[in-house]
Amino acid sequence: MRILLTGSKGQVGSALAQALAGLGELSALDRQGLDLLDVQSITNAIAKAKPDVIVNAAAYTAVDRAEQEEDAAFAVNSRAVDALARGAKSLDALLIHFSTDYVFDGEKPAPYMETDAPNPLSVYGRSKLAGERVIAASGCRHLIFRTSWVYGPAGRNFLHAILAAAKTKPELRVVNDQHGAPTSSAAIAGAVAQVLANLDLSRIASGLYHLSAAGETTWHGFATAILEAKGIKIPVRAIRSDEYPVAAQRPKNSRLDNAKAAATFGIALPDWREGLAGVMRAMY
């Protein structure tokens, strides 16, 4: 199996680079190796690698900055994805792509299913939804995994932000009215590797799947657990979202129903606390 991995040095990509290495011939490209703003660069990379599987871990993920950089967000999260999908279609390759809970508005009181109608609140969410749609429209064989609250040792994420803030502030203020499941990059990568290891590429049925950690918490609960895991003792004050203004609106409910992925592939990510413990062991 020949695998082309994009975004190989990002938080999900770096975990995938390790998890996919034993599954076949892996071509792992980072931002320097593949310019996602250049469609010809994408086309050339696919033609050179001739992959059986393209795993796209590259994305524009600066949620708040996207409100002022809409074109940049759509360039990476939609137009580059369209080029990857068309390249996959030309080779009859499988495209694995990652999307987000932010395609939903958070108004549903229960976990979101794949059949629920998206209604993104932010530019980032709209750009990721656009990426999902260009993949479906391309006709390529694909698996789209929506995940949530992603973090890990690599990249910029909530985990690093909390640990950095704890070094300089006597108290942290963290929102307590947004609910979801923090999902580690290692858990995502392990699940994707398991899917590929057991997948018959000649019989793959394209689809959209939710893939997030088990359990749920709030950002306040996640921050508290991070500090407890590191043994840092400072107050963490729970606040409302309107007390912490940011450029992009977030959904209040980011919980995803993962039953379809479990039934189809036999995969179920561990509880978010178990995932956090694993990441902290890897970091320290």
Q: What is the percent of helical residues?
A: 25-40%
Number of helices: 9
Structural class, from helix and strand content? alpha/beta
**CATH homologous superfamily name?**
NAD(P)-binding Rossmann-like Domain
Largest pleated sheet: 6 strands, parallel
Number of strands: 12
Architecture per CATH nomenclature, i.e. the level-2 architecture: 3-Layer(aba) Sandwich
Strand residue content: 15-25%
What is the terminal-to-terminal distance? 34 Å
Spatial strand order of the main sheet? 2-1-3-4-5-10
CATH class: Alpha Beta
> Which blocks of ≥5 consecutive residues have pLDDT under 50?
none
Shape: globular
Radius of gyration: 18 Å
Average pLDDT number: 95
CATH topological fold name? Rossmann fold
Q: How is this structure best described in words?
A:
There is one protein chain. The protein is an alpha/beta fold and 284 residues long. The chain has one domain (2-156, 183-214, 255-269): 3-Layer(aba) Sandwich (Rossmann fold). The protein has nine helices and twelve strands. It has helices at 11-19, 39-49, 70-91, 123-138, 158-168, 185-197, 219-230, 259-265, 272-283; strands spanning 2-6, 25-29, 53-56, 94-100, 141-147, 150-151, 172-175, 179-180, 183-184, 207-210, 217-218, 236-239. The strands form four sheets. Strands 2-1-3-4-5-10 form a six-stranded parallel β-sheet, with helices on both faces. A two-stranded parallel ribbon has the order 6-9. A two-stranded parallel ribbon has the order 7-12. The model has no long low-confidence stretch (mean pLDDT 95).
